[in-house]
Amino acid sequence: MNEKETLGCREILENIQTEELRSLTDTVTKKLIKVTTRSEAISAILTYSQSSCELLKRKKIKRDLLFKYLVDKGIVVSVSSDKRTIIERLLKTWGTKNISALMTHYDEDMPSSSSSENFSEHKKNQVMIPQVNSTELTPSLGASNHSSACESASSNANDLQLLGETFARWFYKVLNSQNPHMGVSAEEFDPCHFWDEAKLMLLIVTDDQSTKDELSGSQLVSDRLLVFTQSEYLLFNPNMRRDGVFVKSERHGMVVVLVCGTIHRQNQHLGVFDQMFGLVKDPRFNDNYKIKLTKLKLHNINVDHVPALKDRPESEIKDLIAV
Predict the structure, then answer these.
(1) Which tens digits make up the pLDDT trace of 42-75?
(2) Helices vs strands, H then E, count in the chain
(3) Rg of the Cα trace of the chain?
């Protein structure tokens, strides 16, 4: 391991419970090394691990532990990333050599059912959706085409879920591109994606206070959302798994999409967010969806796991999806 790998692995191991650490020591050293303290255990694990990749893929190194490490370091990955993806990102961050070869060995060594309990749970809950052409997510001038990939979706639950997930991916990709620290070209994000009478209901919760605000009109709503990324340098990292996106259709045609995730600013993890969108088709532009209503809650709290809608009180969810 290089110096960055050793330091990073040490920091990760320091967050493992003592009993788990002892068990991992026995596994790595094949019970040939006896340790009496946490410090000795960590040193033994680092000394006798063949590589950082070989260490990180072990069952005792949970996916959520690695995700939390990245969050604490201000390194953004999708909350739906599996353990393999997170490990690969860690290796790139640490400047590990021959990553492709290491990840190939990782795949070969992994059993058909994942050796990680957390990874298995993730795969079990993961929803496979059809591939969406990237051009279908790019709005055209004067119209909101962010749902064009879902125009022909039927009213069944799977198609409705696909519509919501497609929209959420498009929305946060475009909104985040306005952040100058992202290092990417800003994509079009303007009032044309909103109905003229669009409304934004905003709730910001900190340790000592809650602030509410409400804005109406496509220009004001668009401008306020842009402030978060352009001026406040926020980065929205949505949970795009099924437990992070809820979609339902109202009888009058509005599609309600609720998304949760984490918020970041450069090297800081700031908290979590919940955002609801009320989408309505615009018959003037091939029935593409535009945003009629959005509710955004920003909560300044620390999290050590992937945010999920099931973690929220039922009453809070009902308030968010109410139209």
Answers:
(1) 999 999 998 899 899 898 898 888 888 887 777 7
(2) 11, 7
(3) 22
